[in-house]
Write a structure and sequence with these properties.
This protein is α/β, with parallel strands linked by helices. It has helices spanning 15-24, 35-41, 73-86, 106-112, 158-170, 186-193, 206-218, 249-259, 279-288, and strands at residues 2-10, 28-33, 61-68, 98-105, 120-122, 126-130, 142-146, 176-180, 198-203, 225-229, 240-246, 263-275, 291-299, 302-309. Strand 11 (240-246), helix 8 (249-259) and strand 12 (263-275) form a beta-alpha-beta unit. The N and C termini lie far apart (60 Å).
Length: 314
């Protein structure tokens, strides 16, 4: 069985939307190459841990993934092309928007996308360590061992970085957390490592749930984290101190209607995956549903919002 590498040349602004199109088309092993991340890291004392992929165009962001070469390939790639062409109608600059396909043998696929991932430092003490990499942690570091497989969440994208930095600040010992759209389980595992006693990781994709469970076991957090298949907060029967959703603006707006019902008193709602142009619409939706925004954080074109329930009568 062969695989087809599908690569889209686009902009930082459109990365999340293109990734979502990939995800819904069943694309595996999604890799994001955002040149703005590399450029901003150039003056950092951590520049040496970033491997710059050979031939990376610093003017173009790229989203790469893999599709099985089967009878549905032509249909799925055409759907991807059509949906990418539609993105400008939603106000997104997709840049070149070029889609390129390359056939890769099954023997080569397993290592094709892993070359992009190295141990990554995030926030004060968090380190994301790919399961195939060797890393010796320093004192005080919180090391998350991860194999993203065919799910989203490697820690390299700005929205994930924002969430990890915020969770590092807000997660306290013995808290309960709900992670909506858990992908690889990276945020859930971070919460477990930071002291949360119970984490519910939810994703609508069965494959993502399986990968999240594997990563949870890899980090010895089976007793603290449960990964389940589900759609947003539907049929959830628990309340949390923190709800985190690293998805897209439209889903966050929809979640705002229910999030308050699943938060403990003084609980917080962390929402990311929001492009700057959609920030005000998300803030408006949060306000309409009884939330006060208490923190706004930005990286590149992306925004994460931290909110809490407004006092009754405010």
């Amino acid at each position: 069985m062969n695989w087809v590498e599908i690569k889209v040349k686009t902009t930082t602004e459109a990365i999340e939307a293109v990734s979502n199109i990939f995800y819904e088309a069943g694309v595996a092993g999604v890799v994001i190459e955002d040149p703005k991340i590399y450029l901003r890291s150039q003056d950092s004392d951590r520049w040496d841990y970033l491997d710059i992929p050979e031939g990376l165009d610093f003017e173009v962001a790229q989203v790469t993934g893999y599709l099985v070469e089967d009878s549905s390939l032509a249909e799925r790639t055409q759907v991807i092309r059509d949906r990418i062409r539609e993105l400008p109608s939603y106000g997104l600059d997709i840049g070149k928007g070029e889609v390129a396909l390359t056939t890769i043998s099954e023997a080569d696929w397993g290592s094709a996308w892993k070359k992009y991932y190295k141990p990554t430092h995030i926030g004060k003490n968090i380190v994301i360590k790919p399961s195939w990499e060797v890393y010796t942690p320093k004192a005080g570091e919180v090391v998350i061992e991860l194999d993203p497989g065919m799910a989203f969440g490697t820690g390299t994208h700005e929205t994930t970085m924002l969430c990890l930095e915020i969770l590092e600040k807000y997660t306290k010992k013995d808290m309960t957390v709900i992670d909506v759209g858990c992908g690889s389980g990276i945020l859930s595992i971070a919460c477990g490592k930071l002291g949360a006693k119970q984490v519910l990781a939810i994703d609508k994709d069965e494959n993502a749930v399986c990968i999240a469970r594997e990563n949870i076991r890899r980090n010895n957090l089976d007793t603290q984290i449960q990964a389940v298949k589900g759609d947003k907060l539907i049929d959830i029967n628990t309340k949390a101190d923190i709800i985190v959703a690293n998805i897209i603006a439209d889903v966050v707006i929809d979640l705002a209607k229910d999030a308050a019902l699943y938060l403990q008193d003084n609980g917080i709602f962390i929402a990311s995956g929001i492009i700057k142009d959609r920030k005000l619409s998300v803030i408006e939706a949060l306000g309409k549903n009884g939330f006060d925004v208490i923190g706004q954080f930005e990286k590149g074109e992306w925004v994460a919002l931290v909110s809490t329930q407004a006092p009754i009568g405010s």
